[in-house]
Amino acid sequence: MSTATAPAAAPGATSSTTHAAPRGGLVEIRGVRKSFGDLEVLRGIDLTVRPGEVTAILGPSGSGKSTLLRTINHLEPVDSGLVTLDGEVIGYRRQGDLLHELSEKEVLRQRTRIGMVFQSFNLFAHRTALANITEAPRRALGVPKAQAEARARELLALVGLEDRAGAYPRQLSGGQQQRVAIARALALDPSVLLFDEPTSALDPELVEEVLAVIRGLASAGTTLVIVTHEISFARDVADTVVFMDHGRIVEQGPPSQVIDAPAHERTRSFLQRVRSGGPEAPDATVEHSPVGHGPVGPDSATSPTAAPEDHR
Amino acid sequence: MALPSALETQRPSAPGARADAACAPPSAAVDAAADPASGPTGPATPVGPGSISALSDEDLSRLRVVPARHPGRVVLAVVVTLLVALVAWSFATNPRWEWGVVAQWFFAESIIRGLLETLRLTALAGAVGFGLGLVLALMRLSPSSLVSGVAWTFSWVFRSTPMLVQLLLWYNLGYLYERVTLGIPLTDVTFVDARTSDLMTPMLAAVLGLGLHQAAYAAELIRGGILSVDQGQLEAASALGLPARDRSLRIVLPQAMRAILPSAFNEVIGLVKGTSIVYVLAHAELFFTVQLIYGRTQQVLPMLLVATLWYVVITSLLSIGQYYIERHYAKGALRTLPPTPLQRLRAGLRGRGARPTTTSAREGASA
């Protein structure tokens, strides 16, 4: 991880390094369904995230993209379907047709291989930046204090915050907090890193410092799954872009296909709206894409499913 | 400060730019700079009524703030001081308080023994109350409805029964259950077998009565504190693979402490005085001791004053402890901790004559 470089410059620069890296995990999602009460938020999701690849999940609010991300580390148990990491079923032990629910201890062990970065950072407010990072290695893996702290300082240097080790989260800016949160997720040496809208709670000028760190990780070979509204960032960094709507994957493929030449009407209208800072993604105003700025026909561009969201 | 004043000194010699200056100072600056006739030091005539555009740096540095007067506060302070003085005067001079008797008994051996007993009761009942309260609070938050139901029922029962009834029930447990037997059911193996009335001393009854009662209240108080911690903290701890024990004790509880502590100290202070109810069990804590003495000497008021003064002393010490403990748990919740009274005093002494407010603020930030 210490070899990670500053912002990767060119779009698609990641794909050359990804497959060589041995550390990234393989995530497979098959037929995943999940309901909250009467509302089915995931309606049969199939997705493969290959080792070392960067997958960006796009979609309007309520499309189920965050829920999908949370099923990968079993923060959200699925109703049906399977999620595996390197062939190991997450949350269950499979014996033929039987799925034995794992004990909490085993689930926690699985989670140490899957790092997660939250939209609202969720740093432990009563702990310094350094202690936030050492907490999990020390308590979940039993790493000795000195070793955990040395590693934490390396990680802080990686995210450019080596001089803020003693600061409490409240003494850091949003961008700095999110970078500490990324360092905290990296401290367990996860094979997969999940990002749940990592820049949505940040001021526009703080977004780039976080994206730069993520770009560095992408080129370092960890498997990354990123839920984001940053379209141009997704295009730069992702190997695969997944567009979700109403609990289904509408389309997926390389960014040149899904973002630049979307096959589905729904994808097109969403991208259109995000680029013009429309109501679908009010937090995506930092998007400065040169592509597709002309207005689209008012009725033809809006699929029936998107209609209610127009009136919010 | 330097930029606007530099602009403004130039403006008067470029009258055409005045209208722009009001709404767009940067463009006005460009205009003024482009005009070769505008010297850097024009006459300091204001642009319009009340305009500050012509103020120089020296003008600005001459400005002084005169603090606002609060005549109401002064009047109130005088009235309150007078009232306090009157009450203090009556306390000191009314012979019926019998201060001599108070002084004579204040450090008497029996009073000190009673005081220690009160402290012991408070400590034991507090430990039982908050220890069990923490367990009950965590049980209440359990996803298992059986576990949370047990905790709810406990709180319901012990909050519904008057304290006096609980104390008397515990003390008279021997009447309800004559023997206490501990062994393996349905076999002859017994480890303990004793008469209940031999086991149930006034002290044990008092600790059980006060402690279990306290636990029911402490449970709700701790639960409230835990609920006040952002759900994201627990989620992040789970995502990092932290064991349940660490999630509760190392992540959530320390942050809940900020919400718990003020009410918890309320409860402990209440408990100190609440122990006086144990006099019904004839247990010789402070209040019962005082009663015994005035029953003999008939000096009721001075003896009550002795007890009250001791309660005041204990409460004051607890309040000081509360301040520092709360300050400890404010770490991370505040950007900079305010200075403690001691730090403020020290800073005040050191910075006497200088500007006291800024000095103490700096002290606080560096401490």
What is the topological layout?
The complex is a heterodimer of chains A (312) and B (367).
Chain A (H helix, E strand, L loop, with lengths): L14 H4 L8 E10 L2 E11 L4 E5 L6 H8 L7 E6 L2 E2 L2 E4 L2 E4 L2 H8 L2 E4 L11 H12 L4 H14 L15 H13 L5 E5 L7 H17 L2 E5 L3 H7 L2 E6 L2 E6 L1 H4 L6 H11 L31 H4 L2
Parallel strand pairs in A: 3-10, 3-11, 8-9, 9-10
Antiparallel strand pairs in A: 1-2, 1-4, 4-5, 6-7, 11-12
Chain B lengths: L1 H9 L7 H6 L1 H10 L22 H6 L8 H23 L5 H8 L2 H32 L4 H16 L2 H9 L1 H4 L2 E5 L6 E6 H4 L2 H26 L3 H9 L4 H31 L11 H12 L2 H30 L11 H10 L5 H11 L1
Antiparallel strand pairs in B: 1-2
Helix pairs in contact in B: 1-3, 6-16, 7-8, 7-12, 7-14, 7-15, 8-12, 9-12, 12-14, 13-14, 14-16, 15-16, 17-18
How would you describe this structure to a colleague?
The complex is a heterodimer of chains A (312) and B (367). Chain A has 312 residues and is α/β, with parallel strands linked by helices. Helix content of chain A is 33%, strand content 22%. Chain A is built from 11 helices and 12 strands. Chain A has helices spanning 15-18, 65-72, 104-111, 129-140, 145-158, 174-186, 204-220, 231-237, 255-258, 265-275, 307-310, and strands at 27-36, 39-49, 54-58, 80-85, 88-89, 92-95, 98-101, 114-117, 192-196, 223-227, 240-245, 248-253. In chain A, the strands form 3 sheets. In chain A, strands 8-9-10-3-11-12 form a 6-stranded mixed β-sheet, with helices on both faces. Chain A has a 4-stranded antiparallel β-sheet with strand order 2-1-4-5, covered by helices on one side. A two-stranded antiparallel sheet of chain A has the order 6-7. In chain A, strand 6 (92-95) and strand 7 form a beta hairpin. The longest helix of chain A is centred in the last third of the chain and has 17 residues, at 204-220. Residues 1-22 and 280-312 of chain A have low confidence and may be disordered. Chain B is mostly helical. Chain B has 2 domains: 1-36 and 55-61, no CATH class; 101-331, MetI-like (MetI-like fold, Orthogonal Bundle), CATH 1.10.3720.10. Chain B is built from 18 helices and 2 strands. A two-stranded antiparallel sheet of chain B has the order 1-2. In chain B, strand 1 and strand 2 (190-195) form a beta hairpin. The chains are: A alpha/beta (312), B mainly alpha (367). Chains A and B meet through helix 3, strand 8 and helix 4 of A and helix 13 and helix 14 of B.
